[in-house]
Amino acid sequence: MSANRVTTRAVPTRTGGARTPLRGRDAELAFVEARLDALAQGEGGIVRVGGPAGIGRSRILAEAAAAARRRGFRAFEGAADPDEQFVPLGPLLEGVLAGDEPLAGGRRLRDLARTPGQRFWLLQELGERLREAARRGPLLVVLDDLQWCDDLTLLTFHTLAAGLSSHPILWLVAVRGGSVPSGVRTTLDRIRQAGAHELVLGTLEDGAVARITEDVLGAPPGPDVLRLARRAEGVPQLLVELLGSLRQEAVTIENGTAGLPAGPPAPRELPSVARRLGQLSSEARELVQTAAAVGGPVTVALLAELLGRSSAALITAVRESLDADLLAESGDRLAFRQDLIREAVEAGLPLPLREALRRQAAGLPPGSGAPPAERPGPAAGTAGPRDAAEADRLRTDAAELSATAPARAAELLLTALELTAADAPERPRIVAETIPPLWQTGRADRARELGAAALAAGGLGPEDEAGIRLALARLAVPFDFSEAVRQARAGAALPSVSATAKGRLLAVLAVGLSMSGDHEAAERVAADAWHTAAAAGDRSAEATLTTVRSAASFHRMDLAEAFRQAERSAALADALGVSTSLWVPEALWHALLSHTTGRTAEALAATEEGIRLTGEQGRTAATRMWRMTRSRILLEAGRLAEARADAEAASPAAGDPGPGNLADVTLRYVMLRVALHTDDRPTARAYAAQARRMRGDGAPVVRHFGSWMLALMADFEGRPDRAMAELDEVMTSPAADRPAYAGLVDPADAPVLVRLALRAGAHERAAQAVAQAERRAALNPDLTFLAATAAHARGLLDNDLAPLLRAVRLYEDCPRTLARASALEDAGRKLAATRRAEAVPYFESALALHARAGAGRDAARVRRRLRAAGVRRRPSAAGLSPDWPELTAGETRVVRLVARGLTNQQAAEDLSLSPHTVSSHLRRAFTKLDITSRAQLSRLAKERDSGE
Question: What's the predicted TM-score (pTM) here?
Answer without folding.
Answer: 0.57
